[in-house]
Design goal:
This protein has 488 residues and is α+β, with helices and mostly antiparallel strands. The protein folds into 2 domains: 58-171, Glutaredoxin; 183-440, Class I glutamine amidotransferase (GATase) domain (Rossmann fold, 3-Layer(aba) Sandwich), CATH 3.40.50.880. It has helices at 14-41, 58-65, 84-97, 113-122, 145-148, 166-178, 205-212, 247-258, 276-281, 414-419, 422-434, 457-487; strands spanning 71-77, 102-108, 131-136, 139-144, 149-152, 160-164, 183-188, 216-221, 235-239, 262-266, 284-286, 290-297, 300-304, 306-308, 311-312, 327-329, 334-336, 346-352, 358-360, 376-377, 381-387, 402-406. The strands form 6 sheets. The protein has an 8-stranded mixed beta sheet. It has a 4-stranded mixed beta sheet with strand order 2-1-3-4, with helices on both faces. Helix 7 (205-212) links the parallel strand 7 and strand 8 (216-221).
């Protein structure tokens, strides 16, 4: 019988293979598109910078989550400007955290000239400087690049970002635009105080401008010429008086405090101010002394009047200064008065000197030294805050009077702010706390971390010998050895 040939098994046809490949490609594209869509709508970013430059604070995130109306941010920069990448990266975090309530538009003024000119016309920009524009409702704020960050100039690395204030300025602008009515701050005059209109070294024009960015208007008042304080005075600032207030002026200030007013005092050691009774009424005594600190300059021990803040109190005014040096120059100190324990008043020491500092009661001289029983040993309080509107639970605020006293005024002048720009943030925070604009209390600038190495003269000589002699000689030796080996 003829053997039956086994039927050969047939594989899938080319049509089936082609169809299978086509379906696989389509499914792969759909899967990639789905993953891309989900990653666009739900993603997580990480800030790997050493100082958290692109991480928003809790205050900023809470503000963005509470927005009820949209906010638009325009970044009008030149693409090759110093700080472009850092500012753009942080503003993108505002957009992302805003969950659709914050719209960001980045405009390169040299590439998108037409759009840049349109924005300059719309917001009446007089110069070609880099700016960030924040708009909410019908109002807007223009923030120049000089307010967003500081630039460290010079060798060996050229221009670099120094203190990075962008989050503080942008968050303050958003909060001020949505907070409504602007506050009114009056600076007293007539006792040698600093003038907020003066651009001289002892003037306070720089501080005035910074306060103005926090939804506040600044004015001046001479209490000796006024029958009463203006009704719109949300806060009164006494900045470095050199002569005492008169009885009728003190009566106005005491009446203002009695009505729940807010007072910022910037006092100086050795200057008569006549505000002792008012301070004691609020539970504070300003000591008649100058705080000194034994330091070493070029290895030589000296007694200085520039005092670094070593520790800070638990208070919103200084909560952002924990890791930042704040310098006080020619300052007195404060202590609680015996009457400070009265109900409804909470006193908080804001800034403390190093424990090695002391309060010199006989004035500063080359032979000055600590006298037990007469001078006051550190740590000393150089700034203090009083809230008279608290009862029992600290969350209950009866809108009582608030006072902040600082033991020096020179750090707030135009010249002082050049040496210590953070002093302006201390004053701004104090005013915003007093007028209950907690959302405007400043965010401390992020300081870039510089990783550097310091080599001794011997180490530099060794490095020069290694780079200039040893390495080239080693290369020549290896080359000569290879040449002789080939010859042999």
């Amino acid at each position: 019988m003829p053997q039956k040939k086994k039927a050969l098994a047939r594989g899938p046809s080319r049509t089936a293979i082609g169809s299978n490949v086509t379906v696989s490609i389509i499914l792969g594209c759909l899967l990639a598109g789905l993953v891309n869509y989900l990653s666009y709508r739900h993603y997580k970013t990480f800030d790997l910078s050493a100082t958290g430059t692109f991480t928003l604070s809790d205050k900023t995130r809470n503000l963005l989550n509470s927005l009820e109306s949209p906010v638009r941010i325009f970044m009008l920069f030149s693409g090759d400007s110093v700080g472009y990448t850092e500012v753009k990266g942080l503003l993108e975090r505002y957009r992302d955290e805003g969950s659709g309530r914050v719209r960001l538009e980045v405009v390169d003024r040299f590439i998108e000239r037409a759009r840049a000119e349109a924005l300059a016309t719309e917001y009446q920009l007089a110069s070609q400087d880099d700016v960030v524009i924040v708009r909410a409702g019908g109002n807007h704020r223009v923030i120049p690049a000089t307010d967003l960050f500081e630039i460290d100039k010079g060798p060996p690395f050229g221009d670099r970002i120094g203190a990075f204030n962008t989050e503080d300025r942008v968050t303050s602008a958003i909060a001020s635009l949505i907070s409504g009515k602007r506050k009114k701050v009056y600076f007293t005059q007539g006792h040698g105080e600093g003038d907020p209109a003066s651009k001289e070294e002892r003037g306070l024009s720089d501080l005035r401008d910074r306060i103005g960015r926090d939804n506040a208007d600044v004015g001046t008042i001479n209490l000796l010429m006024q029958p009463q304080l203006p009704q719109d005075a949300d806060a009164v600032v006494v900045a470095g008086p050199v002569s005492p207030f008169q009885p009728q002026e003190l009566e106005l200030l005491n009446g203002y405090i009695g009505r729940g007013g807010n007072l910022l005092l910037m006092l100086d050691p050795g200057k008569p101010h006549g505000l002792g009774n008012l301070l004691e009424r609020m539970g504070v005594i300003a000591r008649d002394e100058v705080v000194v600190w034994p330091a070493r300059v070029a290895g030589v021990p000296v007694l200085v009047q520039t005092i670094p803040a070593e520790t800070y109190g638990n208070h919103p005014i200084v909560s952002r200064f924990k890791k930042i040096n704040l310098l006080f120059h020619n300052t007195l100190s404060f202590v609680r008065a015996p009457t400070s324990g009265k109900e409804g008043t909470r006193i908080t020491e804001l800034v403390f000197s190093p424990s090695s500092a002391w309060g010199e009661t006989e004035g500063l001289s080359e032979t000055a030294r600590f006298d037990e029983g007469r001078d006051h040993r550190g740590p000393l309080c150089m700034a203090i805050a009083v809230d008279s509107g608290r009862v029992g639970n600290e969350n209950v605020d009866l809108a009582g009077a608030r006072l902040v006293a600082v033991g020096c005024s020179g750090i707030f002048t135009n010249d002082g702010l050049l040496r210590s720009p953070l002093a302006a943030d201390l004053a701004r925070n104090a005013i915003n706390w007093m007028v209950r604009q907690d959302q405007l209390i400043g965010i401390a600038p992020k300081q870039p971390r510089r990783n550097s190495y310091s080599l001794s003269v011997a180490q530099l000589a060794t490095l020069g010998l290694l780079v200039g002699v040893v390495i080239p000689a080693s290369i020549l030796f290896v080359g000569a050895a290879a040449w002789f080996q080939r010859r042999s």
